[in-house]
Amino acid sequence: MQSQFRGTGVALVTPFLKNEQVDYKALEKLVDHVISNHVDFLVALGTTAETPTLSDEEKRDVLACVVAKCAKRVPLICGIGGNNTAELLKQIKLFDLTDVDGGLSVTPYYNKPSQEGLYKHFKTIAEATDKPIILYNVPGRTGCNILPATVIKLANDIPNIIGIKEASGNMVQCMEIIQQKPDNFVVLSGDDNLAMAHIAIGMEGVISVAANCFTREFTEMINLSIVGKLDKARKIHYKLLTGIDLLFAEGNPVGVKCALAEMGICENVLRMPLVPASAALKAKIKAYMNA
C-alpha cells in the first residue's frame, strides 16, 4: 500500500481562465505534462490547488477531471483536510473517492488544537474511510505543529494512517519521526528546497509544488537521491534551488502559476486573496527559466 506513495508526488495547481472559472482543459494538460515527465503520483485538491477558494461543486468537478485524465496511469491522492472535523466527514461522504488511492489531510489551521485534539481529529477522519491517509504537517501555514510523539501514536494506533508529509522545516523533528516510526509508515518531504536533504536522512519521497513546472529535473533529483547517487543529485539540487526559492517568494501557488503560464500550460490567474506575481518576480522567474 505505502510503496505507491514513494518517490515524487506533485501537488497539482487548479488552473483558472481569465474570468476565474476553473480551466479544465488546462488541468488536463497539466496532468499529462507531469505524468509524461515521470512523477510517481498526483495530489488533487491539496493546499496548492487553492482549495479554500473552490466551491464544493468545483472540488468534485476538479477531482473528477483529474481522475479521468490520470486514468490510473499513476496513483492519485485527494486532499481531505481542514479545521472543521464534522465538515470533513461530510466531504468524505460527498466526494466520489472510488478511483482515488489515498487522502492527504493537513493539520487544522487557526484553531490551534492540542496534541490530543490533533490525535482525535485525524483518528476520526481515518475511521470515516477505508482509504489510506497521509498526514500533512505545515506549521508555517497552519499555525499548528503535530509533534513526533503524536505522529508515532497515530501511526501505531490507526491502520490506515500510513504516512506523513512533513513540512515543518525542523530537521530534528523530521529525524525523530523517521527514527521512531513503524517500518511500514512512509515519511515524505513537504519542502521542495529540503527534499534532497530529507531523503538523505531517511525520507522516501516528496509531495512537491516545483514538480508542477520543473518536473523532469526535480523528479530526476529525487530518484537519484533515493538510490544514494547524491553527487549527481546535488548538482541538480543547486541548479533548481534558485528557481524553487522564486516559486515561493510571494506565496504559493503564485510563483508556480507564473512559471506554468510561461510554459504555456495555464493562465497566470489566481483567486483572491491571492494575486499574480509582481512584475519584478515575474521577470526573475522568466529569466531563470530562459537561462
Please, could you describe this protein's structure?
By secondary structure, the chain is α/β, with parallel strands linked by helices. The protein has twelve helices and eight strands. The chain is globular, with a radius of gyration of 18 Å. The chain is 45% helix and 13% strand. It has a single domain, classed as Aldolase class I (TIM Barrel, Alpha-Beta Barrel).
Q: Strands across the major sheet, in which order?
A: 7-6-5-4-3-2-1-8
Number of distinct helices:
12
Largest sheet: 8 strands, parallel
User: What proportion strand?
Assistant: 5-15%
**CATH architecture designation:** Alpha-Beta Barrel
Which SSEs are present, and which pair or pack?
Elements: E1 7-11, H1 24-36, E2 41-44, H2 56-70, E3 76-79, H3 85-94, E4 102-106, H4 115-127, E5 133-137, H5 139-142, H6 148-157, E6 161-166, H7 171-180, E7 186-189, H8 195-200, E8 205-208, H9 215-226, H10 230-247, H11 254-262, H12 279-290
Parallel strand pairs: 1-2, 1-8, 2-3, 3-4, 4-5, 5-6, 6-7
Helix pairs in contact: 1-2, 4-6, 6-7, 9-10, 10-12, 11-12
Give a brief description:
The chain is α/β, with parallel strands linked by helices. The protein is built from twelve helices and eight strands.
Task: Name some characteristics of this structure.
TIM Barrel, 45% helix, 291 residues
